[in-house]
Amino acid sequence: MYYFLPSWYRETSMAEHEPFSAVEERWYRNVRRCEFDDTVHQARMFLASGESPVLLSLSYAPTLRHTLHRLGIDRMEVISVFDRMQNVTEKNAAVFSYRDLDWPEGIGFEYTPFCVIGYLKGKRFVRVEFGEEGNFLFADYYAGVPARRHYLDPAGSLRFSHALSSGAVTVAEGARDAFRKKTYASMEELLREMIGRIMQEMTDEDLLVIASDHRHNHLFTDYAKHVQMAFSYYGERFDPGNEQALVKDAACARFLVTDTEDNARRIRTLCGYDKPVYDLSPFDTRLSLGQSQRVREMKILLAMEHLDEPRRSSALKQILLYMQENRNTQLLLLARSGETYTEATLQALTDEVMNANGIGPFTIAGASAESPCIAENETGVVTPDEKRPRVMIRFYLTEHDLIRILHDVRLIVDVSDQPDLYLQIAGISAGIPQINSHFTRYVEHLRNGYIIGNIAHLSEGLSWYLSDLAHWNEALVYCVQQIDRFAHGSIVEKWKGILSQYG
């Protein structure tokens, strides 16, 4: 059996007092977290391959089932530690309205396009939040700073209370048979007890894949001799500066998994070469070819995340100069929602490069604007109307956002020091060639991409794929061939092959 332990914890100011609490993001806000997660994609691949993986959740997440539905892994069996502590056993969904809650007499509700606000005696009392599909998620009360959180069972009876200032947990008298102690110094101490019980349910033939996180890694080290464990290092959760923690965790794992070849090399250097480290893609390819070859305009996507100066200005300059000579081209500036860039900063950067180099100026369309079509006259010739937007700004949060953006992209340019792994996989799935400044296992020079050793050679890659359709078609064919190599079945077989070495 494969068990996956995710790292789904809040990153807000309350994290200090409730480190194991998860937050369901409000759908209408720009969040500072992109929902690309190794656990999510590993679980999807195993489910798609006919396996029955189990999600082990340490998070206090009342909206967990909604999250799993939104992420497409709601078919997965779930072991929720907090559900067990609260004696929640029902797994079937039920119809529930926020009006079913026990509201105080005299409360009135005001409806907005985003949420429902409850007023009591003329003052705001509660904010009711909903999911994208209109289902009730949670209610935030305007009641000052929380001091204590009460955890109830499905019947509404108190199970235990958590004092947020001291961290102490007190078990209710009616629930003491379910716990070993009446009081715990912290929520972590209580979780340790419950984790011990769950780990006893596993066998030495099971594999527990832990999304490495300093908040929970140490809770599992005592069970290394009983259960096979692997730590998964992904994205920003891999901190090469914390060598001591990395070595300690590695000592308890059968093997380590990371997302890139570069991270694998760094981990081997820190941990020593006696610990197996595998760079297994957390993402799988899915045949979803784009439609750029069916439209006249050629859209160049420039990945802005992690693209620093002077490489950023050089890339912009070369693309904009190419656009000045080729009027049927457009530039799409891509960034993650709510992270490094805003619409204003991207527009300012582009304007600065155009002004400094006498380019254009081209009209820039904001993130909310529709993608414009190239204007043509009656003979089908592109007109010189430069008032139409030639530069578009796009932000993405979920993988669905990115796939939608790639729908009509002709060429991906990601010349950062560490190319975006998911963007490369999505590009293969869509059959889009890519220009990178570093070699990876996903993009091969003159096959499905163009690797430039120097940023000054970016214009050569642009000409290679945009001036000659034959090269673009060759890349498309090669991408289709590569899809089987990185499909979910192939990656799951690699997991099984690794596990068989330690069985």
Shape: globular
Structurally, how many domains make up the residues? Answer: 2
Radius of gyration over C-alpha positions, nearest whole angstrom: 26 Å
What is the topology, as strand order, of the major beta sheet? Answer: 3-2-1-12-13-14-15
Terminal-residue CA separation: 12 Å
Q: By helix and strand content, what is the structural category? A: alpha/beta
Largest sheet: 7 strands, parallel
Overview in brief:
29% of the residues lie in helices and 21% in strands. It is of the alpha/beta class. The longest helix is centred in the C-terminal third of the chain and has 17 residues, at 469-485.
Could you explain the architecture of this structure?
The protein has 503 residues and is an alpha/beta fold. It has two domains: 2-278, no CATH class; 292-485, Rossmann fold (3-Layer(aba) Sandwich), CATH 3.40.50. Helices cover 29% and strands 21% of the residues. The chain is built from 13 helices and 22 strands. The chain has helices at residues 38-48, 64-71, 81-85, 187-200, 243-252, 261-271, 311-325, 343-357, 399-405, 421-430, 458-466, 469-485, 488-500; strands spanning 2-5, 54-57, 77-80, 108-111, 116-120, 123-130, 136-141, 148-152, 158-163, 169-171, 183-184, 207-211, 228-233, 255-258, 277-279, 298-303, 329-336, 363-365, 389-396, 411-414, 434-436, 449-451. The strands form four sheets. The protein has a seven-stranded parallel sheet, sandwiched between helices. It has a seven-stranded parallel sheet with strand order 18-19-17-16-20-21-22. Strand 9 and strand 10 (169-171) form a beta hairpin. Helix 10 (421-430) packs across helix 12 (469-485). It is globular. The two termini are 12 Å apart.
